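step: validate -> pass
step: tokenize input -> pass
step: predict -> running
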Amino acid sequence: MAPSGAASAYAVGVTSLTFEDAARQRSLKTVVWYPAPLGSRMVEHTASPIFVPFVAAKDAPLSDARERWPLVVLSHGNGGAAINMSWFGAHLAAHGFIVVSVDHPGNTYGDTSPEGYVRGWERPQDFTALLDGLLRDAAWGPRVDAARIGAAGHSMGGYTALALAGARLNLAPLANLCTGPETREHPGCDELRDVDYGRIDMTVARASYKDSRVRAAFAMAPGLAGTYEARDVADIDVPVTLVLAKGDELMPHAQHGLQLAKLLPDATTVTLDDAAHFTFLPECTELGFKAAAMLCRDARPGTRAASQARTLAEAVAFFQEALDAR
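step: predict -> pass
step: emit ->
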């Protein structure tokens, strides 16, 4: 999918930055998509052979059309990768946003463990450290509008966006599901059924990791959506959009997405009838359908492009309004 549509105002640049979180001993490797000057030479970039390429100009200059740009931090799902959110990040960049995605240490492709999967509360802290570093950066800091920062993400990245807005992680239902003898084989428990939950400090897991710099949250098929209690979302006081997949095979819609929507009555909820959980990954190549069928499955075959087009239109409109970034 090309990153820009007829209404795009900018070419898309792409680069990478690394920030060190010394306090937690985590190296935060990022992908950055951003508005580049019209006429920048954009070429295809292959993030993975199982996904279609995205189009951008590597290391192009940031457009001077604005002195400062609104920023969206973007979080991938469990075991995913920052670069595979390119379909989303590049599109927002084409419409006037700097977008920064991070490979979450211990929970990204090629760097995973059961403990990394379950320690979801580390994810919003990654972005708090990233924002600290980005806003201090001599080149990027002066170009970011610190009053216009949003968060977006897919699956556990959706949780991450909501956590930055004030949501708290309730791991107890997950521990019960993934260790119970009758439920531990649930497909959503892959990588989670062999965790020693007795070693996890549930108080730390359920603490608030809200970042007051984040003014809006856009969550796609948000992870653990059915585990929240009212108190877990009581601190959310910024605009939220939930994009839910009616055919979500990992988190059935009625028990997860709809339950979260009921707890967030002021949120905008968009339900995609043809989408499944992994619809929010890039469109698949022929190899992808053969080698990673689960990641290429949509509730109705052949609809990923349409579902993503709806999602992208919703995201641009949401962040333009919520961040006053038109």
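step: describe -> The chain has a mean pLDDT of 94.
step: cleanup -> pass
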